[in-house]
Amino acid sequence: MADAVAGARLTNSGDPISGIAASLGYDSESAFSAAFKRIMSYAPRQYSRRQNHISPLRENPDIVGDNRLGSVAV
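Given the sequence above, the corresponding C-alpha cells read:
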C-alpha cells in the first residue's frame, strides 16, 4: 500500500517529501500532499512531525516509572 510506504518513509527515512512523492509516481509534491492528506487526515509534514513527537508516556500513562524507559520524573 502506497500510503503505508509513504507514512513509513515520512517517519523514518528523512527523505524530502518531494523525493517520496516522485518515488511513488506523483508529478508534484502538491499532488502527493493532497492525496496523502485525503487518506491519512494529515498533511505529510504534519504526519511526520506527529509521528516523530509522540511520546510513549503520552500514549500510555500507565508506563510511568517503567524501568525500560530509564529515569522518569513524575
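DSSP finds five helices and no strands in the chain. Try to locate this feature in the C-alpha cell string yourself.
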